[in-house]
Amino acid sequence: MKHNLLSDKEYKAWLTEIKLKVRHTQLKAAVKVNSEMLLFYWELGADIVTKQAKAKWGDGLIDQLSKDLSAEFPDMKGFSRTNLMYVKKWYLFYSQTDVIVPQAVGQLPESKFIPQADKSIFQIPWGHNREIVTNCENVKEALFYVQHTIKYNWSRNVLVHQIESGLYKREGKSVNNFALTLPKLQSDLAEQTLKDPYIFDFLSMTNKYDERDLENALVTHVTQFLLELGTGFAYIGRQVPLRVGKTDFFIDLLFYHIRLHCYVVIELKTTAFQPEFSGKLNFYLKAVDMQMRSETDKPTVGIIICKKKDKVVAEYSLSDIQKPIGISAYKLTHSLPKKFKPSLPSTEQIENELSDRGKK
What is the CATH number that goes with domain 169-359? Predict the structure, then answer.
């Protein structure tokens, strides 16, 4: 038999208390909209879990609560049944864990309901929090995206793209020799900068394509390419000429990294990694350091992005290289965020564009 919540004095008293909290939160909203509302959601989530566990209100609690709060505050969108379910899920996701990463949040009020939660979750918008707890497997992964959102000021679309592309599992995973060729601080940052694999799911390529085709396609979609490379990369050019002795050489892609304070040379390979690739890139890094690097620039970093690699072969190839080089693979097929789909050309359009460029 369904319990009638409206006749329950304890429920009515609790509902009145919640209404007062909402009013109080609305008064403070002009000053601290996000943190105050999230703190309210956190306490509401804790209340819902506690009431459902101790009282005899059962699953009908959220339905009734949504109806009552929506009637009292018709202009607020946060009291739908769906959102209240997210509030409960958000609270449970972070509260039932031993992961504690204390982080100050300005003047965020102390609360008896926040003994374990990383307070950084109160620094990002509610929509971001919903996406994170819905798509992350555990708290450690979730906090990775929370802290990156704060650090790089990601929009929700960018956050969703990073989660869908599996950034957490790819960042800092490349084979590299940075620890041996760079100072400690720069080597740590450089290692974090690299991913493995890189996801070029914004491209539509024919079955047969070479390095120049891949390079052309990446430059055509340089905005998405920069997003995949990560924060800090500034695009300089493609097929950048270097003259050494009486011979001309050409760098596939040249970037400058504003956080590493160095040039970054990227070589694209549409085949499996071969040991000679690192030797050639080592030569390019030497040339860039000699001809382009200024006194204020850090040592130039090289990245080989290839179709696939044997980790042992890659490690052997870098063992005696004196220049900082990282080796990663790339993938073309992956689920693409809806945000980018309308802007992508068809396979036919890209083939025609590459064909036209080849005729010039």
Answer: 3.40.1350.10
